[in-house]
Amino acid sequence: MREVERKMEVNDLKKLRYNSKSSLKMSIILIVVGFSLLYYLWDRDIIFVKVLCGIIGVLGILGFWQDFISQKKEKDEREKIKIIVKTKLIDKKIIDMRSSVDSSDPNETKYRLFFENSKSYDVKDYIFNKMQIGSEIEIEYAKHSKWIINIYGKSMNIENDSVVQRY
C-alpha cells in the first residue's frame, strides 16, 4: 500500500462540497426524526423506542459535529490536498439484504469490494463483475475529512455515485 499527497483539482473540490452537503442533509434528517419521535412518544411507556429515537438523534448530532463543527472540510478546502492510496483488491462479496417479503427490489443487494488495507467499498453490479481479485485499486480521498473523491480500478472509475463514503 502506497500513499501519495497531491493537490486537489477543481472537480475534486466540487465533489468534496457535494459529499459535505449530503452528510449535512443526513445529519439534519436524523436529528429531526429522532427527536421528533422522542417528543411524540414522551408520554408513552415504550422505553425501548424512546432510547432508539434518542440514539438516532444523537447520531445525527455526532455526524453534524464531525463534519461542520470540527472544520475538517474547511481545512481541506484551504489546503487543497488529497491523499492517493494504491492498494489491491483481496476479496469481493455479494451481500443480500433483501427480506423474504419483498425479494424483487434490486437495491437490496450490495456488491462490496474488500482491499488489503482492511477497507471496503460498495460498487454497482456491472463494476463488481468486471473487477478481479488482485487488481490494483487507486483511492483518492481528502486529507482531513477523509471523504472519498475518486476510486479507480482496472483503468476505470469504479466510484458508486449513489454512495457517499469516507475512507
Provide a descriptive summary of the structure in words.
This protein is an alpha+beta fold. The protein has 2 domains: 9-78; 79-157, OB fold (Dihydrolipoamide Acetyltransferase, E2P) (Beta Barrel), CATH 2.40.50. It contains 4 helices and 7 strands, in the order βαααβββαβββ. It has helices at residues 10-40, 47-69, 72-79, 125-130, and strands at 2-7, 81-96, 109-115, 120-123, 136-142, 148-153, 156-157. Strands 1, 2, 3, 4, 5, 6 and 7 form a 7-stranded antiparallel beta sheet that branches. A hairpin with a 5-residue loop joins strand 5 (136-142) and strand 6. Helix 1 packs antiparallel against helix 2 (47-69). The protein is globular, with a radius of gyration of 19 Å. It starts with a strand and ends in a 10-residue tail after the last strand. The model has no long low-confidence stretch (mean pLDDT 80).
